[in-house]
Amino acid sequence: MPELPEVEVVRRGMERWVSGRTVADVTVLHPRAVRRHLAGAPDFAVALKGRRLGPARRRGKYLWLPVEDGGTALLAHLGMSGQLLVRPEDAPDEKHLRIRIRFTDTGPSRAGAAGGTELRFVDQRTFGGLSLHDTVPGDPEGLPDVVAHIARDPLDPAFDDAAFHAALRRRRTTVKRALLDQSLISGVGNIYADEALWRSRLHYDRPTATLTRPRTAELLTHVREVMEAALAVGGTSFDSLYVNVNGESGYFDRSLDAYGREDEPCRRCGTPMRRRPWMNRSSYFCPVCQRPPRPVGASNRSRALS
Fold it and tell me: Where are the domains of the chain?
């Protein structure tokens, strides 16, 4: 699933190509793509027609465009394979095209585009979708009410480092579980959690109650560094399912230090990296640089690498 850097790349594309445009018509080609819009596909299309879309926003892995003068927002969730693509109106339909949104204007100029551009939602697995939701009253960003429980992300200027540390100390959990808890910190997924933990020399099962304030600060620094580095090269693409609005892939997978590197040498110490099953996913770590926590009451001999 796309994580914060990938969704931010898409948000920037939406800001450039879609924000400020007025919807001419909407065609829903697969009902599952609007299943989160409880009033159904016909209502979704009618509610958007003639409405102007505001600045593209994001919180964690969710992005949205406020619908001006409506108290609603167009929310996009990419799921496992969702793509928001800006295409020339006369471009051939993609195989898994689910929603088409046309606009009253031609949009920003684009090299090689004949006529205007439209927004397409393409989703092979149909886990993602678009939907309209009421916004939180008084929220300056037009935050959809259904994502109001999602915490701010570490790149958000309003993210509270001290409050995050206090929450970690209160929780009876482990550090990777905490990084993936969207009510604590949003936008961090499996890939960037493993990368930040490797940089921080923290094992994924380290209890959060053992983290000191300096260690939490160091971890947040590495989370931000990893995400900024991924943003600089367009995110991480392991296959053709994640692309930006122009259909281009990201290249951060070529710079990964931990994720996907099982049996390859650790870039710090040379020890073969390991992979362990973890919550229906995998965790990648260095058994020397990221030593597992010692079980309570265990002897020194029981500290064998997990």
Answer: 4-146, 161-302
Catalytic residue among 59, 61, 120, 206: 61
Q: How far apart are the first and last CA of the chain?
A: 27
How far apart are the C-alpha atoms of 49 and 71, rounded to whole Å? 15
Concerning whether 89 is annotated as a catalytic residue, the answer is no
| Strand residue runs (E) in 78-160 | 82-88, 97-103, 117-123, 129-134
Question: Which residue of the set 281, 291, 292, 293 is catalytic?
Answer: 281
Q: Give the pLDDT mean for 247-251.
A: 46
Interaxial angle between packed helices 213-232 and 190-200, expressed in degrees from 0 to 180 and rounded to the nearest 10: 130
Residue pLDDT, tens place only, 215-225: 999 999 999 99
Q: Does domain 4-146 have CATH number 3.20.190.10?
A: yes
Whole-number pLDDT of residue 25: 97
Helices (H) and strands (E) in the chain, counts: 6, 10
% the chain with pLDDT above 70: 86
* Residue 2 annotated among the catalytic residues of the structure: yes
With a cut of 50, say whether residue 212 has pLDDT above it: yes
Residue 235 carries which DSSP code? -
Query: Is 49 a catalytic site residue?
Result: no
DSSP conformational letter for 3: -
**Architecture field, domain 161-302:** Orthogonal Bundle (1.10)
What is the average per-residue pLDDT within 271-296?
92
According to DSSP, the residues that pair with 87 across neighbouring strands are 118
* pLDDT, the chain, mean: 87
Task: Give the residue carrying structure tokens 């580095």.
Answer: 229
92 belongs to the catalytic site: no
